Amino acid sequence: MRNTPLTTVDHTPRAVIAIGTDYPPGTLLDTHSHRRAQFLYGMTGLMEVRTDDGAWVVPPYSGVWIPAGKPHAVRMQGVTTRSLYIGPDADPREQSHCDVLAVSPLLHELLLASADLDALYDVSGRDGALVTLILHELRVAPPLPFFAPIPGDPALAALCIAFLRHPDARQTVDTWAARLNTSVRTFHRHFGQQTGMPFSTWRQRACLLAALPRLIAGGTVTAIALDLGYDSPSAFSTMFRKVLGRTPSQFAETSRKGTPS
């Protein structure tokens, strides 16, 4: 099905509802939730997802897993999507948090084919086999580091949100600890408890989230690196390659060509 409102098919007696949708650049889907879990896959453009847990950036040929009932908002930057809405009895991941998942070439082809499924597809025929294989591939899809969690502590959350809006790799633990009137040691412990990762890792993730949309939009590595507070383009590129396994230029080229990795 293509460009079909979920509300018209949500209660169809099938484990999976598959819908392909085209979104103009800048489309904002305000905070909402679904009774089914959702796998939202962008074949073109870029998606930015926010929940009360944090922020994700979802580049082409990656998808975001959204648990059933999880409130979320999505900004689409010229995205063509394949969405799978999955009932609780078929949920392949059974987790309470969102994840950006890597989409293999096989899963990519399966998701392409899913848009041709009828709402009442034949569960005992080819379409049923297609759905079964999709669910298996989603079960084993590895998560990607495109997430920066928001802590529950209001004062620390305010600092994190401000950083996500204006990321700066030069900000230090000492600065954040001083703003919270705490020691560096206490800050490290508290930040790890609140986010599940060290401050340096979180800061790196946040800078990465800011860089991805600009790279795909054609921004230069030099301009992006300096704007994010890196000492040099090479320092930024080293970080980028360490996290994602490829250089910023390689990532941008692959994303613009639309080639699954």
Features:
Arc Repressor Mutant, subunit A, 261 residues, five-stranded antiparallel sheet, alpha+beta, globular, single chain, Jelly Rolls
Radius of gyration: 19 Å
In percent terms, what proportion of residues is strand? 15-25%
Would you report the number of β strands? 10
> Can you tell me the CATH architecture of the largest domain?
Sandwich
Structure annotation, total helices? 9
Helix and strand content put the structural class at alpha+beta
Q: What's the number of structural domains?
A: 2
Task: State the share of residues found in helices, binned by percent.
Answer: 25-40%
CATH topology of the largest domain: Jelly Rolls
CATH class identity of the largest domain: Mainly Beta
- What about the largest sheet? 5 strands, antiparallel
CATH fourth-tier homologous superfamily of the largest domain: Regulatory protein AraC
Strand order of the largest sheet: 1-8-3-6-9
Shape: globular
* H and E order: EEEEEEEEEHHEHHHHHHH
Could you name the ranges where pLDDT drops below 50 across 5 or more consecutive residues? Answer: none
Distance between the termini: 26 Å
Q: What is the mean predicted local confidence, pLDDT?
A: 89
Brief write-up:
The chain is an alpha+beta fold.
Compile the SSE list and pairings:
Blueprint: E1 16-22, E2 27-32, E3 37-42, E4 46-51, E5 54-58, E6 62-66, E7 72-77, E8 80-86, E9 99-102, H1 105-114, H2 126-140, E10 147-149, H3 154-165, H4 173-179, H5 184-195, H6 199-216, H7 221-227, H8 233-244, H9 248-257
What does this 3D model show about the protein?
- The chain is α+β, with helices and mostly antiparallel strands.
- It folds into 2 domains: 6-140, Regulatory protein AraC (Jelly Rolls, Sandwich), CATH 2.60.120.280; 148-257, Homeodomain-like (Arc Repressor Mutant, subunit A, Orthogonal Bundle).
- It contains 9 helices and 10 strands.
- The protein has helices at 105-114, 126-140, 154-165, 173-179, 184-195, 199-216, 221-227, 233-244, 248-257; strands at residues 16-22, 27-32, 37-42, 46-51, 54-58, 62-66, 72-77, 80-86, 99-102, 147-149.
- It has a 5-stranded antiparallel β-sheet, with helices on one face.
- Strand 4 and strand 5 form a beta hairpin.
- Helix 1 (105-114) crosses helix 2.
- The radius of gyration is 19 Å and the shape is globular.
- The two termini are 26 Å apart.
